[in-house]
């Protein structure tokens, strides 16, 4: 796992943290629920922060995190260390759960029109066209995002950070769907090349 | 299996970014579970983008949150049978062909949505998509219904159609209406179907393809063996 060496952040603390999370998934896979405690102690506040940023409402964010932890519990045995970090895997489970809530019309239809408007409006503010660097922090990801053309970068951030779909990004940017898809696709190719 | 196609790499990226619908993402997870290289690429990009998630402002958990998760897990454990045993009982398609056919289904969906060159010709978005599976659970075809009395069908595996037979596509708008033909196909080329006025397609509406006498079913109802069938998933 030499690739871990160029991971951002203080390497040793990061490795220890990663090992704890990996062991926690192992515990869940073995049916020991203290694995859940470890994950929530180490990452709970940050995970809830991610859910809150995407969903814009505390009750929905809490629900997403609870669902995600149940999923982590039941899917932990499927986690494979060779396919990325335990931390990345846990955040992906949460993000997927948030996106499913956002895209489930029936789920959001219980909100009043005012609340729904608030959720949508809050999402519009997540990715500012200027000052996006705050989203990626200092480091290689930020440098590489900085080298992308602004439209590709903005579209990629709208998708990953705010959970917008292709169609929503196209409507927001007032561009044809196909243009957005190719902007994102080209942007990701360039981004991965820069990061590797 | 180490070199992935451009399409598969693009699908991996879209999966990580969260750009797939729930149905597409679940199909893609089936590929990841069977293909280490795909899973490795997904994991690598995911880890590279993790700083974005770590930039969110942390939020305090409610005091009883951990306890609530534990009781939800305990409640779930009582309800559900052992997932490993359930999985063992399910018919699993052969691993080697699975990636190919699922990928073809996903790429087909993506082309329908306009990716991979399709964007040169803007296409309407389907209202529902159904992946039609055979009795062994192997995907055979993908039907996209546009809700304006047109649909497309695309086969994702080789189907042997005898010279004196035709494939016919059906849907079941309601039990009252019974199965309605969407069109008769000659061969397994992707086809656009236009049909008579039908109610708008809905979630879990049944679609199927049957093998019929040449020119289509003589009775107006499916008579031949089912090549594949599946339930519609609404698209957003």
TrEMBL record, chain A:
GO BP terms, alphabetized: DNA-templated transcription initiation
All residue ranges annotated as the RNA polymerase sigma factor 70 region 4 type domain in the record: 140-191
Domain RNA polymerase sigma-70 region, chain residue ranges per copy: 44-107
Cited Pfam families: Sigma70_r2, Sigma70_r4_2
Molecular function per GO: DNA binding; sigma factor activity
Keyword set, alphabetical order: Sigma factor, Transcription, Transcription regulation
Superkingdom field: Bacteria
Family as reported in the entry's similarity comment: Belongs to the sigma-70 factor family. ECF subfamily.
PANTHER family in the record: RNA POLYMERASE ECF-TYPE SIGMA FACTO, RNA POLYMERASE SIGMA FACTOR SIGZ
Name used for this protein in its record: ECF RNA polymerase sigma factor RpoE
Organism of origin: Roseovarius halotolerans
Organismal lineage: Bacteria, Pseudomonadati, Pseudomonadota, Alphaproteobacteria, Rhodobacterales
Gene expressing this chain: rpoE_2
Automatic annotation (TrEMBL), chain B:
InterPro entries named among the record's database cross-references: RskA_C
Domain named Anti-sigma K factor RskA C-terminal: residues: 102-226
Domain of life of the source: Bacteria
Chain intervals for the UniProt region annotation (Disordered): 212-236
Annotated transmembrane regions: 101-120
Keywords tagged on the record: Membrane, Transmembrane, Transmembrane helix
Pfam family of the protein (one): RskA_C
GO cellular component terms listed in the entry, alphabetical order: plasma membrane
Protein known as: Anti-sigma-K factor rskA
Organism for this UniProt entry: Roseovarius halotolerans
């Amino acid at each position: 796992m030499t690739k871990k060496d160029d991971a951002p952040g203080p390497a040793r603390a990061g490795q220890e943290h990663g090992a704890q999370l990996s062991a926690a998934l192992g515990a869940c896979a073995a049916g020991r629920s203290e694995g859940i405690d470890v994950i929530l102690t180490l990452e709970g506040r940050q995970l809830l922060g991610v859910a809150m940023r995407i969903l814009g409402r505390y009750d929905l964010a809490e629900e997403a995190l609870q669902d995600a932890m149940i999923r982590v519990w039941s899917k932990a045995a499927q986690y494979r260390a060779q396919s990325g970090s335990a931390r990345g895997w846990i955040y992906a489970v949460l993000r997927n759960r948030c996106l499913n809530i956002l895209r489930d019309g029936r789920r959001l239809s219980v909100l009043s029109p005012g609340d729904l408007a608030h959720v949508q409006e809050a999402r519009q503010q997540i990715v500012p066209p200027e000052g996006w660097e705050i989203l990626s922090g200092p480091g290689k990801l930020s440098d590489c995002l900085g080298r992308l053309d602004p439209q590709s970068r903005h579209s990629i951030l709208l998708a990953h950070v705010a959970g917008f779909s292709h169609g929503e990004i196209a409507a927001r940017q007032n561009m044809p769907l196909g243009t957005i898809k190719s902007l994102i696709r080209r942007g990701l190719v360039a981004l991965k090349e820069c990061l590797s | 299996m180490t070199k992935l196609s451009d399409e598969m790499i693009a699908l991996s990226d879209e999966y990580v970014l969260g750009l797939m619908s729930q149905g597409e993402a679940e199909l893609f997870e089936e590929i990841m579970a069977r293909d280490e290289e795909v899973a490795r690429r997904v994991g690598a990009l995911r880890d590279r983008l993790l700083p974005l998630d770590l930039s969110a402002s942390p939020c305090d958990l409610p005091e009883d949150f951990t306890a609530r998760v534990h009781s939800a897990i305990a409640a779930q454990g009582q309800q559900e049978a052992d997932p490993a045993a359930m999985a063992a009982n399910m018919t699993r398609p052969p691993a080697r062909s699975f990636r190919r056919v699922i990928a073809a289904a996903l790429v087909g969906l993506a082309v329908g949505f306009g990716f991979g060159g399709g964007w040169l010709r803007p296409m309407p978005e389907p209202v529902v998509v159904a992946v039609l599976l055979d009795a062994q659970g192997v995907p055979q075809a993908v039907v996209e219904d546009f809700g304006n009395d047109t649909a497309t069908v695309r086969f994702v595996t080789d189907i042997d159609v005898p010279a004196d037979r035709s494939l016919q596509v059906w849907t079941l708008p309601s039990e009252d209406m019974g199965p309605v033909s969407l069109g008769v196909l000659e061969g397994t080329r992707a086809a656009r179907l236009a049909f008579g006025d039908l109610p708008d397609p809905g979630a879990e509406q049944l679609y199927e393809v049957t093998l019929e006498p040449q020119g289509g079913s003589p009775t107006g109802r499916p008579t031949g063996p089912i090549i594949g069938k599946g339930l519609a998933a609404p698209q957003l």
